Amino acid sequence: MPLSDTTGAPGPEAAGGPLIRFEKVVKRYGDNVVLRELDFEVAAGERVTLIGPSGSGKTTILRLLMTLETVNDGVIWVNGDSLSHMERNGKLVPANEAHLRRVRKKIGMVFQQFNLFPNMSVRKNITEGPVHTLGVSKEEANQRAEDLLELVGLKAKIDAHPTQLSGGQQQRVAIARALAMRPEILLLDEVTSALDPELVAGVLDVLRDVAQTTDITMLCVTHEMGFARDVSHRVLMFDAGRIAEEGTPEQIFGDPREERTRTFLKAVLETG
Amino acid sequence: MMWDWEFTAVVVPRLLDGLVITVLATLIGYLVALALGLAVAIVRRVRIIGPIVHAVMEFIRTTPLLVQLLFVFFLAPSGMTALTVGITVLGVHYAAYTAEVYRSGIEGVAKGQWEACRALSLPPLRVWGAVILPQAIRKVIPALGNYLIAMFKDTPLLYAITVQEMMFHASGLGGQYFRNFEAITLVGLLFVLVSVPSAILIRRLERRYAAV
């Protein structure tokens, strides 16, 4: 597995199988094939960035992992559990909600549009999952919410409502909310795309912090190439539902082999 | 035609008795409509049962309330009072409307809210109770309020099944004293007296929730 740990953070563990494995995954929306027999693996602790033109299937990969979508064909494995099937009496049967909930608990997601609950305070947004999904006590969840808000620099806003926050602040709360679930895998879906340019840096700084201080496996769809270069161990270039090229950030950004990657990066760097 | 004040003095206390019944039927019927409508709106999203419930509610919504009242009244077990039949039918009839209101509210909640719930693996009770319904209901409070007033104005139909609400007394005493004009006018006035403040109250609620 190609790897280069440029940040000094702990790299993926060599022992054990991959944490995430896509096996000939096909995803279609009607006639539109978004993923074509996609195979790829992510090791525990690895930080992978998915780049590529819009419609190339990057976001779909995150949505499939979060079980917001289901595969049409193929299997996705997370830590040895299939996202579409489960074992019952030695046979593979379609996964039920309980199985999905168990697998999903390991995965957190931050959305492009934040998706905070507007009817709850920042504190409630962050404690809701730990208290009601993980069964953590209110005190403990509160303490963790405060610690995480400290991390994202918004402790003063703990009793504010999302509508009172800027987009960048909302996204930082959303990151805290995802981390409060202590996920093994964090999915970041174009988390800065909906933000005003001056708010992007604050959000990316928080994520750099998370990358440096934890060993959470991260899958990141982004157009922020500087960020991708800083935090990721590996970059996957997608095109038309397939991986067009993969490699270390140095290789992909410094010396891309594929013409498709070169034109894409040129376009992104020119506009960005 | 002269206004008969003597008759007015006789009929008003009876009309006020009727008003109590009218308000009672409206409030209890409305609670039934609110609760049942909500249940219907949620169950409608369930496979197989959903379409069946929807079909039943569509049937109720497209047949006249008066027909439903008489139909149930004549079929109801003898132990059931006219008032109970009236409240039940009013409640169920209006549940067909409130269910549609709730549905539009639920569909109006952003898709991302459902996805965030799923990403946090929240149990269904929290998804509905803490995230979706608080947002959905806030948006439809004005529409729900309008049905309270519409329902209040429909209560004279209960007269047809012998519930002793305002119209019942107005029609009885009006006929007895040959003073239908005063009787019906007074009923109209009493309706206005309750409707207008209720409408103002609902507008206030609406403004309060729209602001947040």
Secondary-structure blueprint of this entry?
The complex is a heterodimer of chains A (272) and B (212).
Chain A: E1 20-29, E2 32-42, E3 47-51, H1 58-65, E4 73-78, E5 81-82, E6 85-88, E7 91-94, H2 97-104, E8 107-110, H3 122-132, H4 138-151, H5 167-180, E9 185-189, H6 197-213, E10 217-221, H7 225-231, E11 234-239, E12 242-247, H8 249-254, H9 259-271
Helix pairs in contact in A: 3-4, 3-5, 4-5, 5-6
Chain B: H1 5-43, H2 49-61, H3 65-75, H4 82-107, H5 111-119, H6 124-154, H7 166-177, H8 180-211
Tell me what you see in this structure:
The complex is a heterodimer of chains A (272) and B (212). With 272 residues, chain A is an alpha/beta fold. Chain A is built from 9 helices and 12 strands. Chain A has 2 domains: 195 residues, 3-Layer(aba) Sandwich (Rossmann fold); 70 residues, no CATH class. In chain A, a hairpin with a 2-residue loop joins strand 1 and strand 2. The longest helix of chain A is centred in the last third of the chain and has 17 residues. In chain A, 42% of the residues are buried. In chain B, helix 2 crosses helix 4, helix 3 packs across helix 4 and helix 4 packs across helix 6. Chain B has 8 helices and no strands. Chain B has a domain of 138 residues: Orthogonal Bundle (MetI-like fold), CATH 1.10.3720. The interface between A and B is medium-sized, with 25 and 17 residues.
